[in-house]
Amino acid sequence: MKNLLFLIAIISLSISSFSQITLEHAYDADNIHLFQVDENEYNYVIKDFENKQVRIYDLNHSLITIINLAMPEGDNWWIHFVSKKLFDLDDQYEVIYTHGTPGSGYTIKIINEESNILFEEYGTNEVYLYSTPSGSKMILKIHADEIAKVYSLQGIYYGEPTINEGVNFLPYPNPSNNTIRLPYELPNGYKEGLLSIYNSEGKMIEQFRIDNNFNDVFLRTTPYPTGIYFYSIISNKYKSKPQKFIISR
Q1: Domain 179-247 CATH superfamily
Q2: What are 9-68's pLDDT values in tens digits?
Q3: What is the distance between the alpha carbons of residues 154 and 57, in angstroms, rounded to a whole number?
Q4: Side-chain half-sphere of 231: how many Cα atoms within 13 Å?
Q5: Strand, helix or coil at 167?
Q6: In angstroms, rounded to a whole number, what is the distance separating the alpha carbons of residues 125 and 173?
Q7: Cα separation of 154 and 135, whole Å?
Q8: What whole-number distance in Å separates Cα of residue 208 and Cα of residue 249?
Q9: Consecutive H or E run containing 79
Q10: Whose C-alpha in 14, 73, 157, 246 is 20 to 30 A from the C-alpha of 87?
């Protein structure tokens, strides 16, 4: 028995000795993300949904600033990116976000830390940011007009070349009443697959052929009854984790 206890103590000590995980800080919110806002600058960003605010902290977890987001009462909203010197070249923080409802439509706004509007586009909630050899680019997809707008940006985009946080491969708007965007990503090495939609009972009700030239399916939900639905990506032996979306009217 003593030998067993001694062995357990040695194993526990060994595990503790190799552990390099240290708790730095605990925030009072779970809607937190880490953005690279400038060449050598990173910030923690917390979304305060109730107060329509963005709180920005440094890497030492000290509060730097609070940015108020302008929008009508009752609007849904989410953040796409937080930056510095991307949309203009001053030293203020910039927030690009979407607000709106399925009934009234969605608007993308870019504001600085004083809540001044730098850019505004009605009729879309889908934005892509890229860093390219010819500078940073912003693409807005406006499905109602079946167009996409490409903008050149003044600064350098330090994020990943895809849609960011607030959308980040999640269906939106969710819940939906008329249309919904179903984002997807095929695994490396896969060129095509199927996006399958299931109802809450697990019955497949629709299927789309997809490829890696795009990363979303724009679905008109008016033929669908209200309820909970799921979709997943199937390609050869690969099957993605199901994503849930809700149709509500």
Answers
A1: Immunoglobulins (2.60.40.10)
A2: 544 545 445 568 999 999 987 778 898 998 889 999 998 888 999 999 999 999 999 999
A3: 25
A4: 28
A5: coil
A6: 8
A7: 8
A8: 24
A9: strand 76-84
A10: 73
**Cα–Cα distance, 30 to 104 (Å, whole number):** 28
Place of tokens 């390099």: 20
Q: Where are the beta strands (DSSP E) in 91-161?
A: 93-101, 105-112, 117-122, 126-132, 135-142, 147-152
Output DSSP code: residue 147.
E
CA dihedral 19, 21, 22, 23 (to 10 degrees): -140
Which residues lie closer than 8 Å to 118 by C-beta, 6 or more apart? 87, 88, 94, 110, 111, 112
Q: Which two tokens stand for residue 181?
A: 């965007």
- Would you state the pLDDT for residue 162? 42
Rg (CA), the chain: 22
Say which residues have a Cβ less than 8 Å from residue 228's Cβ, sequence separation at least 6.
199, 200, 244, 245, 246
pLDDT band at 1 (very low <50, low <70, confident <90, very high): low
pLDDT at residue number 4: 52
What's the pLDDT at 104? 77
How many whole angstroms separate alpha carbon 236 and alpha carbon 226? 31
Contact 38, 85 (CB under 8 A): yes
**CA angle (59, 133, 159) in 5-degree steps:** 25
Model confidence band, residue 235 (pLDDT cutoffs 50, 70, 90): confident
* pLDDT tens track for 125-182: 788 888 888 899 999 988 777 889 999 999 999 876 443 333 346 788 888 888 888 9
Residues 6 or more apart from 237 whose CB is under 8 A from it?
Answer: none
| pLDDT, position 136 | 93
